[in-house]
Amino acid sequence: MRKRINHRGAVGKSVLKTPKVAPKRATETTTVGDEAFSRNDEGLMCERVPLSVIARETGTPAYVYSAGAIRDQYAHLRDAMKSVDARLHYSVKANSSMAILSLLRELGAGLDIVSGGELYRALKAGYTGRDIVFSGVGKTEREMEDALRAQVLLVNVESEQELHVLDAVAKRLGVKAPVALRVNPEVLVDTPHPYTRTGEKGMKFGIPFDEALSVAKASATLPNIDLIGLDMHVGSQISQFAPYEVGLQRLLHLRREIERETKARLEWLDIGGGLAVTYDAERSVDVRHFGEVVKALVSGSGLKIILEPGRYLVGNAGVLLTRVLYRKRSGGKEFIITDAGMTDLLRPSHYNAFHRIDAVKPTGRTTVADVVGPICETGDFLALDRQIDDAQPGDLLAVQSTGAYGFVMSSNYNSRPRAPEVLVDADRFAVITRRESYDDLVRNEIETPEWRSR
User: Fold this and answer.
1) Structural domain of residue 378, as residue ranges?
2) pLDDT attached to residue 86
């Protein structure tokens, strides 16, 4: 039985409110994810707020995040890397909520972004350009212009063609572009799904390893490019450190070749993110050992390290609250039909991902059922053939470990409004993203087209 952590601090009094029901002391905890989610006689809690209270106040489906869990994960990783000259740049694509970005800024994080929209969010959340690394395999010229105007720390370039386009954009602006070459380390990676592998040979990401030196030489001929770093990313949900070791060794060797063959002096080594979180009963990643691995390889190199954690910081800090609408039996199978589906959480359908599902107030009985949503697709499910609480219509379920790649991947398919996001901090909670309305669904649509001719 885990002890429930004592979460600290607040995220801004103006956005948080006290729940109307005074929570009782937790008596037991769940075994999934961070220890922010506990259980007492009011049911499942997020920190000291009953999830039933949040469901009553905001409706369902709804995403709920623990501020304390995010703080703790950040502190664990920061402490693990303290013996290395390292900066933690949160990967915005994992969860781009403005309130989450602001919370991480207060903790001292930088950001890793992959689009102009994420740059806009970053600047609006109070980050400066020097806090930001701009990654992504398909940057547009407008995105490059915005990044250079914002004076980002690095642009992680992923092809020689991109390098030449960036040089032309920098020339128009009269600046030098600070560049790190994203190199595909071409290492074998064991991840839960092929879609989460980015560092194997033949992937769309990064410059092929055997072409990296020639691209570096090309950069030396471009007057508006300042090559100052190297970058890699081996994949997501990495629980073994061997791919990082091999990738780092290859990039450190490449660094020596680049500096020998060109006048470049590299300052930065961006080693990506991808550290695994727990979705079921997996053992948590030993980030202290990870820090030791990195230190052993980069010690004495003189390089400043960038780490890009995303899922690791927020994945286990969130749940998706959903209410059971109906029970159904068909073809000898039990179905639990909920008001959340693949438009709210795509990962089970898209990645065949496992998310534990807990009843907020268990019935004391279990069943084997498919947990499915209301979307008009056979692929709309949250769990298949799952041993689960025998939940009945009106009961609340919490889909665990949905703080990363949950809300950010949600959609309006079937013209469904997106769910709200709620942040909990100790005994307070606040809506940080409002539930969309039907008006929001058609806000940008034009009912009567204004036709144009050639």
Assistant:
1) 13-66+316-440
2) 94
